[in-house]
């Protein structure tokens, strides 16, 4: 009887130890899996953060207001651009881009003064708008307004309400949303700006850009821009790759090959833009020089080659 009880207890202990050993092995395996996942997650976060920082620093260096980081800080940019086109003399265009934040009322509420349409300029807009027999737009009217900025679920929302100093005064309302989605090697940047202006009606400007870091000094951006207006209900598309090369702390190059198209009366290409910009910080942290050769192939000229060159100087004050 004693031997039988001892045998049963021994079998029970063996089974218990076997189950405990299996449980410990399973626990160790789960810990290893979690450790591997944590390492993968850490690598993903580190790589995504590096790509995002590089992307934002490139946008800040090129002073691209459409793609730059959304901040409520004062900035004043004095620009002096010299346009040279084939069979034409140089044209000098002085311009002021500014956003001045006045003393705060609340943490998320800002009173600002800015120049009209300063948020619609991109890296290729100057070359794109330099069409033959067409003057460059020069929107120097000032706008006074109030901005409310809030973040929800990783999305930066902002609302601008104000008036443009013109005759007669022009009221405007602008609602924007900006979201950054980080993948392992790609960064998706979405930025939408819905604007109503008393004299122009509604416009909607959407950027859906994909950024990928190729090396420590090169970043590739697949540009996708959509611009809609309610005057003729047309949509203008700008699509194509842009490559940014950070040569050093003070110099950078950008290459652009974009296609401009519209959907009215039919979907058709209106322009091809090839552009290279060499940007150098020539003094301290606030004086920059741009050398921008470009070629347009506009439909209005039967897609004939229309080269040009822009020599620009930017003096940046405030938030850099």
Residues in β-strands, percent: over 45%
CATH class identity: Mainly Beta
Biggest sheet, in brief? 14 strands, antiparallel, barrel
Q: What is the overall silhouette? A: globular
Assign the structural class, choosing from mainly alpha, mainly beta, alpha/beta, alpha+beta, or little secondary structure: alpha+beta
Side-by-side strand order of the widest sheet: 1-2-3-4-5-6-7-8-9-10-11-12-13-14
Order of helices and strands: HEEEHEEEEEEEEEEE
Name the CATH architecture.
Beta Barrel
Number of strands: 14
CATH topology call: Porin
End-to-end separation in angstroms reads 89 Å
Number of domains: 1
Q: Helical proportion?
A: 10-25%
Q: Any overview of this molecule?
A:
This protein is an alpha+beta fold. The chain has a single domain, classed as monomeric porin ompg (Porin), CATH 2.40.160.40. The protein has helices spanning 2-61, 125-129; strands at residues 75-85, 91-101, 109-115, 142-152, 155-164, 170-182, 186-197, 201-213, 218-229, 235-246, 251-262, 268-283, 287-296, 306-318. It has a 14-stranded antiparallel beta barrel.
């Amino acid at each position: 009887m004693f031997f039988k009880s001892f045998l049963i207890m021994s079998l029970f202990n063996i089974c218990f130890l076997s189950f405990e050993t299996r449980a410990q092995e399973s626990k160790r395996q789960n810990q290893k899996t979690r450790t591997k996942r944590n390492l993968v997650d850490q690598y993903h976060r580190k790589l995504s953060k590096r790509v995002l920082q590089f992307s934002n620093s490139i946008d800040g260096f090129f002073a691209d207001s459409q793609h730059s980081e959304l901040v409520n800080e004062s900035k004043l940019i004095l620009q002096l651009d010299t346009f040279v086109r084939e069979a034409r003399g140089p044209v000098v265009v002085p311009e002021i881009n500014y956003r001045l934040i006045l003393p705060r009322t609340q943490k998320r509420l800002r009173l600002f003064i800015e120049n009209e349409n300063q948020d619609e300029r991109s890296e290729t807009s100057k070359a794109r708008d330099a069409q033959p027999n067409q003057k460059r737009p020069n929107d120097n009217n000032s706008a006074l307004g109030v901005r409310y900025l809030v973040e929800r679920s990783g999305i930066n929302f902002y609302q601008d309400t104000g008036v443009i100093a013109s005759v007669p005064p022009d009221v405007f309302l602008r609602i924007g949303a900006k979201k950054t989605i980080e993948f392992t090697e790609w960064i998706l940047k979405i930025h939408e700006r819905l604007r109503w202006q008393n004299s122009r009606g509604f416009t909607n400007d959407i950027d859906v850009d994909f950024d990928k870091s190729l090396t420590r000094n090169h970043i590739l951006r697949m540009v996708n821009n959509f611009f809609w207006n309610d005057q003729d209900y047309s949509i203008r598309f700008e699509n194509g790759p842009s490559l940014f090369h950070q040569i050093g702390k003070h110099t950078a190059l950008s290459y652009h090959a974009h296609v401009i198209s519209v959907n009215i009366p039919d979907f058709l290409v209106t322009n091809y833009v090839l552009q290279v910009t060499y940007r150098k910080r020539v003094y301290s942290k606030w004086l920059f020089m741009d050398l921008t050769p470009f070629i347009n192939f506009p439909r209005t000229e039967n897609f004939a080659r229309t080269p040009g060159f822009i020599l620009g100087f930017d003096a940046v004050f405030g938030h850099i």
